[in-house]
Model the fold of this input.
Amino acid sequence: MARLIFSALLGALGLCAASCQRPEEAQPAQQLTSAEVQERLIEQNRAALEQERGFIKEFMDSTGWAFQPAGSGAHEYRVEQGSGSAIQDKELVNIRFRLTGLRGDLYQEGEQEVRVLRDPTAVWGLQYALQRARHGDSVVLLLPAHLGHGLAGEGEVPPMSPLVYYLRVL
Done:
């Protein structure tokens, strides 16, 4: 009887050894070609951009403000038209700003000097907006992540964060 139980146990262990493997051990891993890897990355990026566009649209819809496209995915709402001169490329401009996320999380606020289209410390979306502004303008600027702090984020700004600039050109 013991021999029969032992034989049955060995048989069960043999079956389990063949069929109780982990899924990753049971089948050899399929290697993706570099073209397939690239295509998957492109699909993931498209999905992330589409999700970001949805968040930005929700924000714009929730405010009731008349945002206008400002190029490359940015949007502007001009709160007040300034009576000063138009800002020139390379001009050193003083701004007062409040920088938040779409949910109102405050990242930065204060005053800053920006040399338009020549300032490595100012995000591209802000510099492009200043290029179209006048002294005295008050603008709400909505920037997708690629025109703000991008994939990595910076300081208080989390990675891949759309930004809302409430700014006044002094």
